[in-house]
Structure formats: C-alpha cells, structure tokens
C-alpha cells in the first residue's frame, strides 16, 4: 500500500517537473529564510544579557525639542542637569564614561616604545563603574583599582597585546603612556567578556587622572557637566525595590524645579533606558561618526503597539 503511494507520487513528480521544481525550491528558500532570521534575531537579542543584576542597570538618556520643532535624542547628561548624580536618591551605583581615543606607547627597556592605536575601547570613568559592571579579576582589587589618579585597568587580551606573556602580577605597576603625555600605571587586569556586548572596553582609566594635566579642561571629576553627546554616557544601577518609573518621575521633577530655560531647546526630558534596550536604539546614532556602539543588523522599530523588523548593514 505504502509502495503504491510512493509510485503515484513519483509519477506526479516526473509528469509535472516544472511545478515540482518550483515547489521544492520555494520550500527550500522558505526553510533557509526561517533559519537565517532565527540566527540573526538570536544574535541581536543576545547583547548584554549576561550582566549580573542587568534588570537594575540603566543608561540615562533624554530627548530635547529644539526651537525649530525638531526632536533631538540625548545619550548623555547636558550641563543644565549635571547635579542629578548627587541630588537624586535611588542609585546604588553610578558612573559617567568618557571614550578616549588615543595613541598608546608601551615603554621598552633598551628599545623604542611599542605603539598602538585605539578609538573605542579606552574609557575614563569613576570607581563606581566596577559596581555596575562585573568582571572576573585576574590581578588587582576592584574596590581600589580606580581610586587614585594615573591608574588603568586592562583587559586580559589588551594586557597580552601590550606586554606579551608576562605574568599578570608583574604587569601590575607597569607604565602605559596615552597620547604621548598621559602616563599611567596598571592597577588591575580583568578577564574579557566573552558574551556579546556593545561595550567591549579594554583600557579603563581612573577619573582622578583627569584632574591633572591637559585633561582637566575637558573632563570634570566632581560632576557630569562636561559629558559630550556621542562620546560619553552615564550608567546607573538602581537600589533594590526602586523602579525605573519612580526614577523617571524624579528626573522629571528635578528638571522642572532646576532647569528654568535650556539653551538646547524648548523642552527637555530625561529617562532611564534599560541596558538591553541600548542595542536597538536607532536614535543613538543620528548619523554621527563619533558613535562607537555597533549598529544592529536587525533594527527593531516599535510603533502603535506593533513590532517591525527590517535589515540594515552592520557597522562596528
């Protein structure tokens, strides 16, 4: 009986070859398309899911309505509201992050310094950075590594790149020179994150370093008043039991009471953006080449309660 079915099917296939080819090719294309879409979406939705307490980690972002009616996305704190880090309660940890593109020199005994260049993986930040983002430490102490000026924490891969296969305990204390004149000492080494992330930083310089030398004009140590859009960000970790909605309300009240007028536009608002939502923030880029985060291959656009996926090129 079963053999008859196969013979009938084979006769139909050989009798209608074109129709069969169209159906088989269509089925194959459909299956392959489903597999590709699954792989892409799984990849895109995997970014920054691995952080402990990720549900309490947010970036402070905002929106400004310019005088001409154009809306502007803000990914950092503007000077008008720089005091919120001290004036608003509810943050367990907080840290501003400054991206610092630099030429890097590693002094060598008896020879010329080794030179490297970096654009998007060197940051200057507060000690609270390690209270927000967790790493496995190979050398150094996360509680003290960024407490002093002229200190830098390196990732494992960058430590090997700069110093070869020297033991980590011997790398601690060695000198690194950024942009020919910013001389710092290694105070710790951390394991690289192996999961997908939009923030693969490898050189983490203490904010106290900025209070000395040529950086003090551009980077403050007491507040966030000089954070620059597209080159800096503010991350916070909320206290347990505090919700983003509660903090957003406090941010709105703070702006209403403190910001009388804004040179940036007519209407300013700030809010907390969940960590795992940053990967899909189209507004963050604004066509600005100074942005360092990766563009998504599958952008997510939400409107009127619907979700549409469209494809774009990746940009590192």
Note down, in words, how this protein is organized:
The protein is an alpha+beta fold and 316 residues long. 24% of the residues lie in helices and 29% in strands. The strands form 2 sheets. Strands 1, 2, 3, 4, 5, 6, 7, 8, 9, 10, 11, 12 and 13 form a 13-stranded mixed sheet that branches. Strands 14-15 form a two-stranded antiparallel ribbon. The longest helix is centred in the N-terminal third of the chain and has 28 residues. The radius of gyration is 25 Å and the shape is extended. The C terminus is likely disordered.
User: What class, by secondary structure content?
Assistant: alpha+beta
Tell me the distance between the termini: 59 Å
Share of residues in strands = 25-35%
H/E order of the elements? HHEEHEEEEHEEHHEEEEHEEE
Number of helices: 7
Dominant shape: extended
Largest sheet features: 13 strands, mixed
Kindly state the number of beta strands. Answer: 15
Radius of gyration: 25 Å
Amount of helix: 10-25%
Low confidence ranges: 285-292, 298-316
Quaternary structure: single chain
Q: Please state the average pLDDT score.
A: 81
Task: Describe the secondary structure blueprint for this structure.
Elements: H1 2-15, H2 17-44, E1 57-65, E2 71-74, H3 84-87, E3 91-99, E4 102-108, E5 111-118, E6 122-125, H4 129-132, E7 137-139, E8 151-155, H5 156-163, H6 168-171, E9 175-178, E10 182-190, E11 203-206, E12 232-238, H7 244-258, E13 267-274, E14 298-303, E15 306-311
Parallel strand pairs: 6-11, 8-10
Antiparallel strand pairs: 1-2, 1-12, 1-13, 3-6, 3-12, 4-5, 4-9, 7-10, 8-11, 9-10, 14-15
